[in-house]
Design a protein that fits this description.
- The complex is a heterodimer of chains A (about 425) and B (about 150).
- With about 425 residues, chain A is α/β, with parallel strands linked by helices.
- Helix content of chain A is about 40%, strand content about 15%.
- Chain A contains 15 helices and 17 strands.
- Chain A has helices spanning about 5-10, 25-30, 55-70, 80-100, 115-130, 145-155, 175-180, 200-210, 230-235, 260-265, 300-315, 315-335, 365-370, 385-390, 405-425; strands spanning about 35-40, 40, 45, 105-110, 135-140, 160-165, 185-190, 215-220, 240, 255, 275-280, 285, 340-345, 355-360, 375, 380, 395-400.
- In chain A, strands 4-10-9-8-7-5-6 form a 7-stranded mixed beta sheet, with helices on both faces. A 4-stranded antiparallel beta sheet of chain A has the order 13-14-17-16, covered by helices on one side. A two-stranded antiparallel sheet of chain A has the order 1-2.
- In chain A, strand 8, helix 9 and strand 9 (about 240) form a beta-alpha-beta unit.
- In chain A, helix 4 packs across helix 11, helix 5 runs parallel beside helix 6 (about 145-155) and helix 13 packs across helix 15.
- Chain B has one domain: Sufe protein. Chain: A (Alpha-Beta Complex).
- A 4-stranded mixed beta sheet of chain B has the order 3-2-1-4.
- Chain B is globular and about 45 Å long.
- Chain B starts with a helix and ends with a strand.
- At the A-B interface, helix 13 of A face helix 3 of B.
Chain lengths: ~425, ~150
């Protein structure tokens, strides 16, 4: 068995041909946090599925907002409020462009994918789902795409149905199709599994569901940092993602919904900004998206998210995708050659995530030892306990990649894992 | 910088690979389940008493090297101890792994002192104390202990 070090020597500057259009060193220079040393070693940040780092343009946009624009939006008549409102609404248009939505009115700002899914469950879901109905999800969902539906099911006497995944961590499409029943009222699926990295055939899922008149929500939290998301091409009814996973600030996020659906949905939370007029007898609600944005939002968060998405569009999502595919494939090869390592999640289509276990070593111990090497990974169940149960393991170690990660960092990961196996030899 | 070898001492690695008293006691006077939601560690401890003394103690479950070794060594130490003695040892042990114990406590903890390295790794304190929290819960007649 070759050690990773030897393998690298025998393959010194293997040209990442697909990644030719992304200058990763230039990208890295845009992310101030990546320059630091951790325990005297260069930080190797491989916990991007938990949260991503922020480029300078995002950090600057937030500072600039608080230094020069801070004020409340949508109802001020003064200069600062007009500027803040314009920037916040410009960010909404950037999101529209990023998702290729038809209208900026289909873009609802939320706190993150979690809130986006909860919003749909408690408004659209509440009016559409009744006793005996079913909501169909998959066996690879994050808890945030399970629990909101469970709450709705408890409330309505409906049933949550999960389509199984196979031993490679791929959705079993024939089972999924057979579980789409006349009782199915909503389909909610993740585009990319946060625990396994599996990419679901969401376009096909939407087609299947739509042929039975079932609307589809896509959890895009793990997809948007890595690949092009086009809601018109997918024809999905809802699409939710978190800003902080796509190089934007925490507390920012997006729910896309088709205009006709958003129009017909009851409001989510009540408060300021979501109304047109209020009397004690009756309130007229504002139009979407404002109907769903009660209270003062995270203004700088929305503006920061817009900057992050602009940054990505400037790089080109196809370039990001190609670079990441190269690094993930390289890292997978590098660590799978280490004796005792087993990769969890071996789907044909994968993105961003490399989950693994080491025989005889608990993932938590792997995480501590890698941390001492300056390598940040996540260990645990990754908020996907049903996935862990499917593979009959309590936890995995998960290295998750982003556009700024390199082959050299994959080598550092492989060396770190070898160190783990030495400590536990 | 903390040294990994301070944490993963040979004694700890050895206990994690070959845990002692790693079995179910049936019947048991007290059992409790301990769970660390952060990393999924889950142990059940079993206690049989003789009056106020622990006649036998064992555990089962899955967890990281630190939590498993700690549970294993705990069962060795607790056999024959009274409830009050057990609580006193837990208190000292907790002080040791959080780095707040006076030096003489470490001495009195005997072989449990190998866990002193945990204090350099604050996120691992819960691993080292999970089994102890679980025994505490069992002695108090509770069914579950969680580190959260």
């Amino acid at each position: 068995m070759n050690s990773p070090a030897k393998r690298v020597e025998s393959n010194p500057q293997a040209a990442p041909s697909r990644a030719a259009h992304l200058d990763v060193e230039k990208v890295r220079a845009d992310f101030p946090i990546l320059r630091q040393l951790v325990y005297g070693k260069p930080l190797v940040y491989l916990d991007n599925a938990a949260t991503s780092q922020k480029p300078r343009v995002v950090i600057d946009a937030i500072s600039r907002y608080y230094e020069r624009e801070n004020s409340n939006i949508h109802r001020g008549v003064h200069y600062l409020s007009e500027r803040a409102t314009a920037d916040y609404e410009a960010a909404r248009e950037v999101v529209q462009q990023f998702l290729n939505a038809k209208s900026h009115n289909e873009i609802v700002f939320v706190r993150g994918a979690t809130e986006g899914i909860n919003l749909v469950a408690s408004t659209f879901g509440r009016t559409r789902v009744g006793a005996g109905d079913e909501i169909l999800i998959t066996g690879m969902e994050h808890h945030s795409n399970i629990v909101p539906w469970q709450l709705l099911c408890i409330d309505k006497g409906a049933k949550l149905v999960a389509a199984p995944i196979n031993g490679d961590g791929e959705l079993e499409m024939d089972r999924f199709e057979s579980l789409l029943s006349p009782r199915t009222k909503i389909v909610a699926v993740t585009q990319v599994s946060n625990a396994l990295g599996s990419v679901n055939p969401v376009k096909q899922i939407v087609e299947m569901a739509h042929s039975r008149n079932v609307p589809v929500l896509i959890d895009g939290a793990q997809a948007v940092p890595h690949m092009k998301a086009d809601v018109q091409a997918l024809d999905c009814d809802f699409y939710a993602f978190s800003g902080h996973k796509v190089f934007g600030p925490t507390g920012s996020g997006v729910l896309y919904g088709k205009a006709a659906l958003l129009d017909a949905m009851p409001p989510y939370q009540g408060g300021g900004d979501m109304i047109s007029s209020v009397t004690f007898e009756k309130t007229t609600y504002n139009k979407p998206p404002y109907k769903f944005e009660a209270g003062t939002p995270d203004i700088s968060g929305g503006i920061g998210l817009g900057e992050a998405l602009k940054y990505l569009m400037n790089l080109g999502m196809e370039n990001v995708e190609a670079h990441e595919h190269d690094v993930l494939t390289y890292a997978t090869d590098a660590i799978s050659s280490i004796p005792g390592v087993r990769i969890i999640g071996t789907a044909k289509e994968k993105s961003g995530v490399l989950s693994f276990i080491i025989e005889g070593v608990h993932p938590h111990d792997i995480g501590t030892i890698l941390d001492q090497e300056g390598i940040a990974i996540r260990t645990g169940h990754h908020c996907s306990q049903p996935v862990m149960q499917r593979f009959d393991i309590p936890a995995t170690a998960r290295a998750s990649f982003a556009l700024y990660n390199t082959r050299a960092e994959a080598d550092a990961l492989a060396r770190g894992i070898e160190k783990v196996t030495e400590v536990f030899a | 910088m903390a040294d990994l070898r301070d944490l993963y001492q040979d004694v700890i690695l050895e206990h994690s690979k070959s845990p002692r008293n790693f079995r179910e006691l049936s019947p048991a006077d007290h059992t409790a389940e301990g769970y660390n939601p952060l990393c999924g560690d889950r142990f059940t401890v079993y206690l049989n008493m003789e009056g106020d003394s622990i006649r036998d103690v064992s555990f089962q479950g899955a967890g990281c090297a630190i939590s498993k070794a700690s549970a294993s060594m705990m069962t060795q130490v607790l056999k024959g101890k009274t409830k009050a003695e057990a609580e006193k040892i837990f208190e000292r042990f907790h002080g040791l792994v959080t780095g707040r114990a006076p030096a003489q406590d470490a001495e009195e903890l005997g072989k449990l002192a190998v866990f002193s390295g945990v204090s350099e790794f604050p996120v691992r304190v819960k691993c080292a104390t999970l089994a102890w929290h679980t025994v505490h819960a069992a002695l108090e007649g509770e069914k579950e202990a969680t580190t959260e």
